[in-house]
Amino acid sequence: MPWAECDEVIQGNMAILVGAKEPEVTLMNGLTVTQHLLLLSFYQPSGKRNKILLESKAFPSDHYCIESQIRLRNLDPKECMLFVSPREGESYVRPEDITATLRSHGDEIAVVMLSGVQYYTGQLFDMEAIAREAHQHGCIVGFDLAHTVGNVELRLHDWDVDFACWCSYKYLNASAGGIAGAFIHEKHVDAKPVLTGWWGHEAPTRFKMDNGVPRRAYVPSSRQIETAHWLSRGFVDSKPLLGQAQDSDSQRPRAARRAALALHPGRCREGH
Fold this sequence. Notes:
Helix content is about 35%, strand content about 10%. The chain has nine helices and seven strands, in the order αβαβααβαβαβββααα. The chain has helices at about 10-20, 30-40, 60-70, 75-80, 95-105, 125-135, 230, 235-245, 250-265, and strands at about 25, 50-55, 80-85, 110-115, 140-145, 165, 180-185.
């Protein structure tokens, strides 16, 4: 497998696993770096629409990433981080409370950035319903799928999710340092601004040094946000994922979900 094409061998399988079209998926970096790159493009605060909605007790890296993205825009995280929380005495965030928050604050929310599966409680959020409701209020919708990919069935494209990111060392078994992934819905493939590098450009002109010559700059897919190859999607990071990705298809998470429902029918409902 040529190192320069190492991620392309996995990309199709990964697209199947997350329920996406192949050009909507790319592999690069680690999770938090990928999340930063996505938020640089999708978090565009304007006027009172400057908030990011996340769950309370989100995974710490998510919290820190969102906080720093807000500070990067010279805004105050205390004002711009909006949380959904379980009710007192409860462990899970009620789906109706997410809906209520979107309806009461929708015109203030720039981005919804929730987990697919909450890392501490194991709650599976209804991503399709959240995306549908959030879009009605003009919000961009993204998910951290670190505890979701390879664990439950996903249909990111059909659910109209705007963007998502994930790591591969948990349920994809790529081990520590495994490469991360990103999804950008095809309707956003020309999203701007983006931070780019060699691998965010089309292959025929990627290594030309005539910077002043007009050329098609961006790969027309989620890969436009790839900044470099050996930093973003190196062979050593990609190789551990290869066997897992080739062995994965959309049926495995579905079967795992059916088994979970059969074992714990009272606890594994949608939204729990």
